[in-house]
Amino acid sequence: MQRKDWVRLTKGQRRAIRYRLRRAGSAAERRRLNAVALYDVGQSMEAIAEMLCCSVGSISLDLRRWRRERFAGLAPKPCGGSEPKVSQEQFAALEEALEAPPSEEGYCAGTWTLPLMVRFLVEQVGAPKLHIGNVSRRLAARGWQRLRPRLGIVREDPQREAKLAAIEAAKRGRWQRTQTP
Q1: Looking at residue 1, what is its pLDDT?
Q2: What letters, b where the CB count within 10 A reaches 16 and e where it falls short, cover 132-146?
Q3: Mind listing the pLDDT tens digit for each residue in 32-72?
Q4: What is the pTM of this model?
Q5: Spatial distance between the Cα atoms of 53 and 146, rounded to a whole number of angstroms
Q6: Which positions ≥6 away from 170 have C-beta within 8 Å?
Q7: CA 111 to chain centre
Q8: R_g of the chain computed on alpha carbons
Q9: For 45-117, where are the E strands, in sequence order?
Protein backbone atom coordinates (compact mmCIF):
# COMPACT_ATOMS: atom_id res chain seq x y z
CA MET A 1 0.00 0.00 0.00
CA GLN A 2 1.31 3.41 -0.90
CA ARG A 3 2.07 5.70 2.01
CA LYS A 4 -0.57 8.40 2.28
CA ASP A 5 -0.47 11.88 3.72
CA TRP A 6 -3.46 11.18 5.98
CA VAL A 7 -1.18 9.22 8.29
CA ARG A 8 1.29 12.06 8.75
CA LEU A 9 0.76 13.08 12.35
CA THR A 10 0.97 16.58 13.69
CA LYS A 11 3.06 17.35 16.74
CA GLY A 12 -0.07 17.53 18.87
CA GLN A 13 -1.30 14.17 17.59
CA ARG A 14 2.05 12.53 18.38
CA ARG A 15 1.90 13.95 21.89
CA ALA A 16 -1.69 12.72 22.29
CA ILE A 17 -0.72 9.23 21.09
CA ARG A 18 2.16 9.06 23.60
CA TYR A 19 -0.20 10.20 26.37
CA ARG A 20 -2.89 7.67 25.40
CA LEU A 21 -0.33 4.87 25.10
CA ARG A 22 0.61 5.36 28.75
CA ARG A 23 -3.03 5.27 29.81
CA ALA A 24 -4.42 2.68 27.40
CA GLY A 25 -6.89 0.41 29.14
CA SER A 26 -6.52 -2.60 26.87
CA ALA A 27 -3.80 -4.31 24.87
CA ALA A 28 -5.87 -3.92 21.70
CA GLU A 29 -6.05 -0.15 22.12
CA ARG A 30 -2.31 -0.01 22.79
CA ARG A 31 -1.64 -2.06 19.63
CA ARG A 32 -3.80 0.29 17.53
CA LEU A 33 -2.03 3.38 18.85
CA ASN A 34 1.39 1.80 18.28
CA ALA A 35 0.42 0.87 14.72
CA VAL A 36 -0.45 4.48 13.87
CA ALA A 37 2.71 5.82 15.54
CA LEU A 38 4.97 3.29 13.79
CA TYR A 39 3.38 3.93 10.41
CA ASP A 40 3.96 7.64 10.94
CA VAL A 41 7.71 7.14 11.43
CA GLY A 42 7.99 5.24 8.16
CA GLN A 43 7.59 1.55 9.04
CA SER A 44 5.83 -0.69 6.51
CA MET A 45 2.62 -2.45 7.45
CA GLU A 46 4.39 -5.83 7.24
CA ALA A 47 7.11 -4.69 9.66
CA ILE A 48 4.51 -3.23 12.04
CA ALA A 49 2.49 -6.45 11.94
CA GLU A 50 5.61 -8.47 12.76
CA MET A 51 6.61 -6.13 15.62
CA LEU A 52 3.12 -6.12 17.15
CA CYS A 53 2.52 -9.85 16.53
CA CYS A 54 -0.65 -9.44 14.51
CA SER A 55 -1.76 -9.69 10.91
CA VAL A 56 -1.20 -7.14 8.17
CA GLY A 57 -4.98 -7.00 7.78
CA SER A 58 -5.34 -5.82 11.39
CA ILE A 59 -2.82 -3.06 10.80
CA SER A 60 -4.62 -2.03 7.62
CA LEU A 61 -7.95 -1.87 9.49
CA ASP A 62 -6.36 0.14 12.31
CA LEU A 63 -4.94 2.69 9.88
CA ARG A 64 -8.24 2.92 8.01
CA ARG A 65 -10.07 3.52 11.30
CA TRP A 66 -7.52 6.19 12.20
CA ARG A 67 -8.05 7.91 8.86
CA ARG A 68 -11.85 7.97 9.24
CA GLU A 69 -12.36 8.60 12.94
CA ARG A 70 -8.97 9.56 14.44
CA PHE A 71 -8.81 8.70 18.16
CA ALA A 72 -12.44 7.62 18.35
CA GLY A 73 -11.69 4.89 15.81
CA LEU A 74 -8.87 3.50 17.94
CA ALA A 75 -10.87 3.34 21.16
CA PRO A 76 -11.89 -0.10 22.38
CA LYS A 77 -15.26 -1.27 21.18
CA PRO A 78 -17.80 -2.37 23.78
CA CYS A 79 -18.14 -6.09 24.06
CA GLY A 80 -20.98 -7.46 26.09
CA GLY A 81 -22.32 -10.78 27.10
CA SER A 82 -25.81 -12.03 26.64
CA GLU A 83 -28.77 -10.33 28.25
CA PRO A 84 -29.76 -11.67 31.68
CA LYS A 85 -32.36 -14.42 31.53
CA VAL A 86 -34.23 -12.96 34.51
CA SER A 87 -35.40 -9.36 34.29
CA GLN A 88 -35.17 -6.78 37.06
CA GLU A 89 -38.92 -7.05 37.68
CA GLN A 90 -38.73 -10.83 38.05
CA PHE A 91 -35.85 -10.54 40.49
CA ALA A 92 -37.74 -7.86 42.43
CA ALA A 93 -40.60 -10.37 42.82
CA LEU A 94 -38.11 -12.87 44.28
CA GLU A 95 -36.78 -10.25 46.69
CA GLU A 96 -40.31 -9.47 47.79
CA ALA A 97 -40.97 -13.18 48.36
CA LEU A 98 -37.78 -13.54 50.40
CA GLU A 99 -39.14 -11.15 53.00
CA ALA A 100 -41.62 -13.85 54.11
CA PRO A 101 -41.10 -17.57 54.75
CA PRO A 102 -41.53 -19.90 51.76
CA SER A 103 -44.64 -21.43 53.32
CA GLU A 104 -46.51 -18.21 52.49
CA GLU A 105 -45.74 -18.82 48.81
CA GLY A 106 -47.08 -22.37 49.03
CA TYR A 107 -43.84 -24.28 49.51
CA CYS A 108 -43.33 -26.94 52.16
CA ALA A 109 -40.09 -25.51 53.54
CA GLY A 110 -39.05 -23.54 56.57
CA THR A 111 -36.36 -21.46 54.91
CA TRP A 112 -35.42 -20.25 51.45
CA THR A 113 -32.75 -22.31 49.73
CA LEU A 114 -31.18 -21.56 46.36
CA PRO A 115 -32.93 -24.45 44.56
CA LEU A 116 -36.22 -23.27 46.05
CA MET A 117 -35.56 -19.73 44.81
CA VAL A 118 -34.89 -21.03 41.30
CA ARG A 119 -38.10 -23.06 41.50
CA PHE A 120 -40.01 -19.95 42.61
CA LEU A 121 -38.61 -17.92 39.70
CA VAL A 122 -39.53 -20.61 37.18
CA GLU A 123 -42.96 -21.62 38.53
CA GLN A 124 -44.43 -18.43 39.92
CA VAL A 125 -42.61 -15.60 38.16
CA GLY A 126 -42.32 -17.25 34.76
CA ALA A 127 -38.56 -16.92 34.36
CA PRO A 128 -36.59 -19.45 32.30
CA LYS A 129 -34.63 -22.08 34.22
CA LEU A 130 -31.28 -20.79 35.40
CA HIS A 131 -28.37 -22.00 37.49
CA ILE A 132 -28.43 -21.52 41.26
CA GLY A 133 -25.02 -19.81 41.05
CA ASN A 134 -26.56 -17.01 38.97
CA VAL A 135 -29.27 -16.48 41.58
CA SER A 136 -26.70 -16.44 44.38
CA ARG A 137 -24.42 -13.98 42.55
CA ARG A 138 -27.25 -11.61 41.63
CA LEU A 139 -28.67 -11.66 45.16
CA ALA A 140 -25.22 -10.86 46.57
CA ALA A 141 -24.91 -7.98 44.09
CA ARG A 142 -28.25 -6.63 45.34
CA GLY A 143 -27.11 -6.66 48.97
CA TRP A 144 -28.40 -10.05 50.14
CA GLN A 145 -26.29 -12.37 52.25
CA ARG A 146 -26.84 -15.96 53.28
CA LEU A 147 -27.12 -16.37 57.02
CA ARG A 148 -26.07 -19.64 58.58
CA PRO A 149 -26.98 -20.04 62.24
CA ARG A 150 -24.12 -21.23 64.38
CA LEU A 151 -23.91 -22.23 68.00
CA GLY A 152 -20.85 -21.00 69.84
CA ILE A 153 -19.19 -23.08 72.52
CA VAL A 154 -20.65 -21.77 75.72
CA ARG A 155 -20.41 -23.40 79.09
CA GLU A 156 -23.56 -23.63 81.16
CA ASP A 157 -25.68 -21.51 78.84
CA PRO A 158 -29.18 -21.24 80.31
CA GLN A 159 -30.62 -20.68 76.80
CA ARG A 160 -28.76 -23.62 75.21
CA GLU A 161 -31.89 -25.66 74.53
CA ALA A 162 -33.68 -22.70 72.96
CA LYS A 163 -30.65 -21.97 70.75
CA LEU A 164 -30.40 -25.59 69.62
CA ALA A 165 -34.12 -25.60 68.77
CA ALA A 166 -33.70 -22.38 66.76
CA ILE A 167 -30.76 -23.86 64.86
CA GLU A 168 -32.71 -27.00 64.03
CA ALA A 169 -35.58 -24.86 62.76
CA ALA A 170 -33.26 -22.90 60.48
CA LYS A 171 -30.78 -25.65 59.65
CA ARG A 172 -30.44 -24.93 55.95
CA GLY A 173 -29.94 -21.20 56.32
CA ARG A 174 -32.03 -18.27 55.23
CA TRP A 175 -31.54 -15.15 53.20
CA GLN A 176 -31.75 -11.70 54.62
CA ARG A 177 -30.98 -8.26 53.16
CA THR A 178 -27.90 -6.76 54.78
CA GLN A 179 -27.33 -3.10 55.36
CA THR A 180 -24.51 -1.75 53.20
CA PRO A 181 -22.47 1.20 54.44
Answers
A1: 44
A2: eeebbebbeeeebee
A3: 888 888 888 788 888 888 888 888 888 888 888 888 888 87
A4: 0.44
A5: 47
A6: 110, 111, 149
A7: 29
A8: 29
A9: none
Query: Which of 88-112 are b and which e, b meaning 16 or more Cβ less than 10 Å from the residue's Cβ?
Result: eebbebbeebbeeebeebebeeebb
H/E stretch holding 114 reads helix 114-120
pLDDT of 6 above 60:
no
Distance between CA atoms of residues 142 and 91, nearest Å? 10
HEC profile of 9-41: CCHHHHHHHHHHHHCCCCHHHHHHHHHHHHHHC
36: buried, middle or exposed (CB in 10 Å: 19+, 13-18, 0-12)? buried
Question: String of b and e for 49-62 (b: at least 16 CB within 10 Å)?
Answer: beebebeeebbeeb
Sign for the pseudo-dihedral over CA of 79, 85, 89, 95: negative
pLDDT of residue 62: 84
Which residue in 26, 45, 33 sits closest to 9, CA to CA? 33
Q: Find the distance separating the first CA and the last CA of the chain, reported in whole Å.
A: 59
Say how far apart CA 114 and CA 175 lie, in whole Å: 9
* Kind plus residue range of the DSSP H or E element containing 146: strand 144-147
